[in-house]
Design goal:
about 400 residues, single chain, eight-stranded antiparallel β-sheet, three-stranded antiparallel β-sheet, alpha+beta
C-alpha cells in the first residue's frame, strides 16, 4: 500500500463538520468511584444499553463512559478484532485520534505558565531557522493560532494534501529519509513553503490543520528541549494520574484491539504502518496519536469538570483560562482542542477523533455537571454518527 492510500485508509483525524454521532453486548464495569445504589445501577444499565446497541449496529468493539465530579463509570462491549473471539475489555487501549489535541494544548499551556513561551510567541521568534525558509505569511504565526487552527497551515487530514506533497517531492523521499529528525525537518520546511489556506463559510480564518499541531509541538521542543511525547507524559499524564500510550493500540501488543475501516465495501482490520510510512505518519502524532483505556479517558474528562466548577486541579492555569473563554463563546468556536457545541438547550465542549480505524467522541458540560464519551474500533461515516447519538443519550 503506498503512502497516499495508507494515510487515506487511516482516516486523518477530525474534520470540523464530522461531529455528528450514536449508540451499544458487553461487560459493564465501574471505572472508579461507583456504588451499588439505585442511581448508580440505573447509570450502569444505561451505559450497558448504549455499548450493546453500538455493537448491534455494526461496531466491532465499543466503550462508553460517563462521569460527574465525584464518580466515573464505563462499559465495554463487543470484540477486539472482527472475526476473533477475544472480547473487548475495560483495560484495553482505544485510540482517540484528534481528541489528543486538547492534551497537546494542555502541554502547551503548561509551557506558557512556566514562562518558556507565550501564547503570542511567533514562529520567527521561536524557530528562527525554520522561519527563514518559510513564506512571509507564516513569520508571525503564533503558538495559539496553531492550536486554534487559525494559522492557515495545510490540513493534512485528507488525501489531497498528501497527493500534493508526493507530487512535488516524489515518493523516493519517503525511503531516502527515515531518521525522525530529518523527516520532520524536511516536512515542516516543505509545509511552510506552501501557500496559506483559508477556511470557508462564516469563519474564514478557521482552517482545521493536523500539521499545525506538528508545528506547535516543534515550538514546544524548542522552548523546553523535550519531545512532545515526553512532555505529554510529564505534564499531563503524571499530574492527572492517568496512563497514556502514544501510538495505535496494537503497538502495545497483539492482545490489544485492532482498528477497522471499510476496504472494497467490507469492514477490515487495519494493519500497522511500517517503514517507510511510519516515520512520516508520526510527524502528526501531536495531532492525534494517543491511545488510552476508557477509565483513563473518564478521568481526563472528570478533571475538566472540576476545573469548570472552579475546583483546584493540576490542569495548567492558561488552559483553564482558555476553557473559561470558550464557555462564553458562541457555538462552533474552536480553541485549544475543543469546539463549543449547543445541545439539549445547554453549552458543551465537544471533540471527535479518528485514526487507524478507531473513532472517539467526547462531550463535556460547560457548567461542570457531567461528561460522557464513546469509543469504537471501527471508523466509518456512519459510526461517528452512532457515537454522537450514544453520548447524547447518556447525557440526557
Amino acid at each position: 500500500m503506498n503512502f497516499l492510500n495508507f494515510l487515506a485508509a487511516r482516516g486523518a483525524i477530525l474534520s470540523r463538520r464530522r461531529w455528528l454521532a450514536a449508540a451499544g453486548l458487553g461487560t459493564l464495569v465501574t471505572a472508579c468511584g461507583g456504588g451499588s445504589d439505585d442511581g448508580a445501577d440505573a447509570l450502569l444499565e444505561r451505559l450497558q444499553s448504549q455499548a450493546s446497541k453500538l455493537v448491534s449496529q455494526g461496531v466491532v468493539g465499543a466503550a462508553t463512559g460517563w462521569t460527574d465530579s465525584t464518580r466515573a463509570q464505563v462499559a465495554v462491549a463487543g470484540l477486539r478484532r472482527l472475526g476473533g473471539t477475544a472480547a473487548l475489555e475495560r483495560g484495553d487501549l482505544m485510540a482517540i485520534g484528534s481528541n489528543t489535541k486538547a492534551m497537546t494544548a494542555c502541554v502547551a499551556a503548561s509551557v506558557v505558565d512556566q514562562g518558556l513561551l507565550r501564547w503570542d510567541s511567533t514562529l520567527a521568534q521561536t524557530l528562527p531557522g525554520l522561519a527563514r525558509e518559510a513564506l512571509p505569511a507564516y513569520q508571525g504565526v503564533t503558538l495559539r493560532q496553531l492550536l486554534d487552527h487559525r494559522a492557515g497551515v495545510m490540513a493534512f487530514n485528507k488525501p489531497e494534501d498528501v497527493a500534493m506533497f508526493l507530487g512535488e517531492v516524489g515518493t523516493d523521499v519517503l525511503t531516502r529519509l527515515q531518521e525522525p529528525a530529518e523527516v520532520e525537518d524536511f516536512f515542516l520546511q516543505w509545509l511552510l513553503r506552501q501557500a496559506p489556506v483559508r477556511g470557508t463559510g462564516a469563519d474564514p480564518d478557521f482552517a482545521y490543520s493536523n500539521a499545525g499541531y506538528a508545528l506547535a509541538a516543534r515550538m514546544l521542543r524548542a522552548a523546553t528541549g523535550q519531545d512532545w511525547a515526553d512532555l505529554l507524559r510529564q505534564r499531563v499524564a503524571q499530574p492527572l494520574g492517568i496512563s497514556l500510550f502514544v501510538g495505535e493500540p496494537l503497538r502495545r501488543g497483539s492482545d490489544q484491539p485492532a482498528g477497522h475501516a471499510l476496504e472494497g465495501g467490507q469492514l477490515q482490520p487495519q494493519s500497522l504502518a511500517g517503514a517507510p510510512e511510519r516515520a512520516w505518519l508520526e510527524i502528526l502524532n501531536p495531532a492525534g496519536a494517543v491511545s488510552l483505556t476508557a477509565r483513563d479517558d473518564a478521568l481526563w474528562l472528570q478533571w475538566h469538570l472540576h476545573a469548570l466548577r472552579g475546583d483546584a486541579t493540576p490542569l495548567p492555569r492558561s488552559y483553564l483560562q482558555g476553557l473559561q473563554e470558550l464557555a462564553r463563546a458562541p457555538a462552533n468556536r474552536y480553541a485549544l482542542g475543543w469546539i463549543t457545541h449547543a445541545m439539549q438547550g445547554a453549552g458543551w465542549l465537544l471533540h471527535t477523533g479518528e485514526t487507524g480505524g478507531f473513532q472517539a467522541l467526547s462531550l463535556v458540560a460547560m457548567d461542570g455537571s457531567r461528561a460522557a464519551f464513546a469509543h469504537s474500533n471501527i471508523a466509518t461515516e456512519d459510526s461517528i454518527a452512532l457515537l454522537y447519538e450514544s453520548v447524547s443519550v447518556l447525557l440526557a
